[in-house]
Request: fold
Amino acid sequence: GKMGILALFEGTVGKIIGGKVLEGRIAVKDKVKIVRGDEEIAESVITTLKHEKKDVKEARSEERRVGKEC
Reply:
């Protein structure tokens, strides 16, 4: 899937990314690449997904808002 980043936050164990799923789906344990323009700036693994403060295992583009903590 593809996710657009809307905001970055500092968490107790790392960064938290707030964003929208733009196409497809993303799920806990998915490997992700963070890209700015044409440049890959980081790689990570999704450890937690939340939708409206509830833990979820995956998010699809029709749900639109998710958060990622890593």
